[in-house]
Each structure stands twice: as C-alpha cells, then as structure tokens.
C-alpha cells in the first residue's frame, strides 16, 4: 500500500522556520516588505516552504483577503517586439507581486476587446493594463465601477492613470535623424498608423515640426495612414508605384508591423529604393542586417510597465494623469557606431 503524504499546514511551516504564523502568512502572500519583515526571515521562510513542499491554499487565501491574485493585460497581438516586450515585463512585474498574469489579445477588434475586458473583470482581476485598445473609455469606466485598478498604455483617458511614450518628441528626433544631410527637395513619406488616433496624430505633429525646422514644407510630405498591418503598408507602397508617383527618398514608418510591409515590398523591388533612407517608430534588431540606411526608435517597454505598477502599488488615485516615458534611438546607419542606443532627448 502506498503511504499517504501528509499535507503541511502554515503552522508546520512557521514552526520549521522558527517564526510566527502571521509572519509566514505575510511572506507567502507577498506582503512582508510593507510590514518591514527582515529579508533574511522572508528568505528563510521561502526556502523552508520549498523543502517542505508547502503550497498556500489559494482559494481560501483569496476569500480571506478578498483577492483573486489575478492580473490582466490586453494587447492587440503578440506579433511584434513592442507588444511581446510589454507582455514579458507585465508577467514579470505581476509574478514579483505573487499575481497570476492573464493576457488577452484582441486583434484590434472592439467586440473582442469588450468580451475580454468583461471576462477579466468577472474573474475579479486585481488590476488591468490596456495597450493598443481601440477605445479604452468604456473599459476604464466599468473597471472604475467594479473597483478594478486600470491603467492605459499609450492611450490616455480622463477616468484613469495613463503611461504613454513621448510620441511627439520621439517622432521629431527620429525625423531629424532621418533627414540629416539630405537635400531639401527629396520626397519624404510618413507611412502607417491611423488618423484621429492619439499616438499617430502626435507622431505626425513631431514629423511635421522637424520638417518645418529643417526648412521644408510640413504639409508637402506624403502621408499614408493605412493602418498597422504589413499587408496594408505593402499595398500602400504598391499604390504609390501604380499611380506613377515617385517613391520617397526618406520614409518614416509608423510601427514595426508596417515596417514588415515595407521590407516585403522592398525585397521584391530593391531598385526602387536605391539610396533611400528608412526610419521606424518601433524597433527590431534584425533591421540592422538590412542593406539599407535605417534608424529605429525603441519604445521603453520596461519603463512603460514599471510606471503602471508603481501606480498600482501606491494609494493615490491620479485619474486623468499622464506619465511620459522617453523612447530611444537604436539603429543608425546599420551599426549606430557601435552604441547600444541613445535617449532621444540627448540628440
């Protein structure tokens, strides 16, 4: 007969670790720092829990503390490094707080956004981060009513706290680097994104500001806000060629997804882009391998998520407040002179 294995209780763990049940509870619940428990004591409790195979009763713990121990993140998709980076950092920050992260990808479909948000709130997530959502206002409102802490990333809202990339200054610095050394009459294009969208409109403002300061007509550049999909960017460039217009010598691509569309079109039509210079408001290190002058702007995904969790950890409401996070120029003329990137404010 197989011998049954005894399930250790919190009292067993407290006795083995040489401390109180209350201290063990705080350590296992992640609240030991707030109660100024000695880090050595916390580590001793955790190590002893591993030795004993102790696992807290999560259901009873949630009922007792009125917590679900769940955290939620909504993103459009996982296909590019920006959203993948947000997800990775969100998971790490959640796990550091003993929260189980739930990630929902919406494919930029408002119906899916509403469905996922309603489901997460019904599961009583303790916090929710929205990134790339079509209209966060409704979700902000129902989170507020349900008592769920909700933060927006790159989507400011008056009903909650928002953390945003410095889109205007980032696009301004990126455009200045893109046009540096080029004559004033070369054609310039802005490709990708959506009109009337917060981030795109600010990036256009920064783009035009740089054009004007460099002696160009801010309204003369071609602007093709075709969305974010690679296929849409490919078809937009195809349309330019089909209409007989000259392709730009300098092209600012608004998102790494649209950059994929440019790369696919360029691969088939390399002669059309001889001597061209490309900039992207987003980053992928493999772009440095392309035989074309490129500069990319890396959004600080670590900083964006960290600012969200700093707010979650604090007690202030700060509804309607925006915190700006500076992006970084990462690739310049293929190698960036051996540097790992520079803050755009330092340009």
Automatic annotation (TrEMBL):
Gene3D superfamilies: 3.40.50.2300, lambda repressor-like DNA-binding domains. It comes from the Bacteria. GO terms for molecular function: DNA-binding transcription factor activity; transcription cis-regulatory region binding. Keywords: DNA-binding, Transcription, Transcription regulation. It holds the Pfam family LacI. CDD domains: HTH_LacI. Residues 9-65 form the HTH lacI-type domain. Coiled coil: none annotated. InterPro entries: HTH_LacI, Lambda_DNA-bd_dom_sf, Peripla_BP/Lac1_sug-bd_dom, Peripla_BP_I. This is LacI family DNA-binding transcriptional regulator. The lineage of its organism: Bacteria, Pseudomonadati, Pseudomonadota, Alphaproteobacteria, Rhodobacterales.
């Amino acid at each position: 007969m197989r011998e049954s294995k005894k399930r250790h209780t919190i009292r067993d763990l407290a006795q083995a670790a040489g401390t109180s049940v209350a201290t063990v509870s705080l350590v296992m619940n992640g609240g030991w720092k707030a109660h100024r428990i000695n880090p050595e004591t916390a580590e001793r409790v955790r190590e002893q829990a591993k030795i004993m195979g102790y696992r807290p009763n999560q259901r009873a713990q949630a009922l007792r503390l009125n917590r679900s121990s769940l955290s939620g993140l909504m993103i459009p998709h996982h296909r590019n490094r920006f959203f993948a980076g947000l997800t990775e950092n969100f998971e790490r920050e959640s796990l550091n707080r003993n929260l189980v992260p739930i990630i929902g990808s919406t494919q930029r479909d408002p119906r899916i956004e509403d469905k996922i948000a309603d489901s997460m709130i019904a599961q009583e997530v303790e916090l929710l981060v929205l990134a790339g959502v079509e209209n966060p206002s409704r979700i902000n409102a129902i989170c507020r009513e349900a008592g769920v802490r909700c933060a927006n990333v790159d989507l400011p809202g008056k009903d909650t706290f928002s953390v945003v990339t410095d889109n205007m200054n980032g696009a301004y610095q990126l455009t200045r680097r893109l046009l540096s050394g080029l004559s004033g009459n070369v054609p310039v294009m802005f490709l990708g994104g959506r009109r009337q969208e917060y981030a795109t409109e600010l990036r256009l403002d920064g783009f035009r500001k740089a054009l004007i300061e460099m002696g160009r007509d801010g309204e003369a550049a071609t602007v093709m806000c075709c969305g974010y999909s690679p296929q849409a960017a490919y078809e937009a460039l195809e349309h330019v060629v089909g209409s007989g217009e000259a392709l730009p010598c300098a092209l600012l691509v608004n998102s790494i997804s649209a950059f994929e569309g440019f790369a696919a079109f360029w691969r088939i039509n390399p002669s059309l882009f001889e001597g061209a210079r490309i900039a992207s408001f987003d980053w992928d290190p493999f772009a440095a391998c392309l035989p074309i002058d490129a500069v990319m702007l890396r959004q600080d995904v670590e900083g964006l998520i960290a600012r969200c969790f700093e707010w979650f950890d604090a007690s202030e409401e700060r509804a309607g407040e925006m915190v700006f996070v500076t992006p970084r120029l990462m690739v310049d003329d293929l190698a960036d002179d051996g540097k790992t990137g520079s803050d755009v404010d330092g340009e």
